[in-house]
Amino acid sequence: MESSDYETPFVTIEREKWRKLRDRKKITITEDQLREIRGINENISMKEVKDIYAPLTRLLKVYYDNYRRLNRTRKAFLEMENERVPYIIGIAGSVAVGKSTTARIMKELISSWENSLNVYIVTTDGFLYPNEELKRRNIIERKGFPESYDLKSMIKFLYRIKSGVSHLKAPFYSHLKYDIVPEEEIEIVNPDIILFEGLNVLQSHSDRINDNFHDLMVSDFFDFSIYVDAEEETIKEWFIQRFLKLKETAFKDPNSYFRKYASIPDEDAIKIGLDIWERINGLNLRMNIERTKYHAQLILRKRENHDVNYIQLRKI
Ligand SMILES: Nc1ncnc2c1ncn2[C@@H]1O[C@H](COP(=O)(O)OP(=O)(O)O)[C@@H](O)[C@H]1O
Ligand SMILES: CC(C)(COP(=O)(O)O)[C@@H](O)C(=O)NCCC(=O)O
């Protein structure tokens, strides 16, 4: 090939080709799994789960099996005990692009790989500074921006996981309360696989690195990583739709930080949502998130109806 425009370390697999992988590998999904996945979100298309997410998880199993095999062989070579060190998959992308939905579908599909495999989802919002601290630093309007996270704790958490610590706790952020809830930490026991999901997981933050952890980055601890991608206009629309839905559901809860929005007309809610998008989430996408896309091993590119249009995978 003459032109460097064609040179890329990624292969692009169009939807139609990807879909057919399912037949080749005879990938099956049980009725129980489909029921669980339907419970995540009534809008998820089961066809999409079968066509896209089942082959995706099947491919991940190839990587995971290799990881286990390499670990065993390496330990045998070094004549060391075969201790369990969890496999960590990073999931990155904008607010409202579908990271948490992707993580939840994958968790369900991965859990059936082997009996009693412990799969956990950890979201990086737990590592946001509490509102009080964000206010003290004058960055309460910058939730999700790199400076809003306690990076040291996040790195320390991943460091401990990869050290083989078998019982640990992850901090919890409540979207209802719009704040960290210290007494609701998430317990993680004997993890085999961690889906580590958040806006910032592929960022290099060498400018903010602390002394004890040298130049460690969150992604140094990943065995695989996925970037969920779509056009900004499309993501903004999903964000607004989710905001309107929350207005009819979670915002009605008397404990909700956003209860003041529960009773306003839709057109006002749309204006507020668009404003939040412009000032915070969209800005963050453009400034800090989108540029991390090609750090991922795999990019899931979605179109307007949430269907995956194509997948890009690192050549190796
Ligand atoms: N595959 C999908 N099919 C249908 N709706 C989806 C899908 N993925 C995400 N959504 C919807 O898009 C919105 C954003 O998804 P979510 O997973 O909450 O995003 P994030 O975790 O990136 O903020 C939600 O309203 C969710 O229900
Ligand atoms: C909590 C979030 C930063 C997402 O965090 P993540 O789990 O991706 O680290 C985001 O959903 C959010 O609330 N952004 C800020 C919008 C606002 O301040 O209203």
Automatic annotation (TrEMBL):
It catalyses: (R)-pantothenate + ATP = (R)-4'-phosphopantothenate + ADP + H(+). CDD domains: PanK. Pfam families: PRK. GO terms for molecular function: ATP binding; pantothenate kinase activity. One of its GO terms (cellular component) is cytoplasm. Pathway: Cofactor biosynthesis; coenzyme A biosynthesis; CoA from (R)-pantothenate: step 1/5. Keywords: ATP-binding, Coenzyme A biosynthesis, Cytoplasm, Kinase, Nucleotide-binding, Transferase. SUPFAM superfamilies: P-loop containing nucleoside triphosphate hydrolases. Its EC number is 2.7.1.33. It is found in: Cytoplasm. Residues 88-242 form the Phosphoribulokinase/uridine kinase domain. GO terms for biological process: coenzyme A biosynthetic process. Its main location: cytoplasm. Belongs to the prokaryotic pantothenate kinase family. This is Pantothenate kinase. It comes from Cuniculiplasma divulgatum.
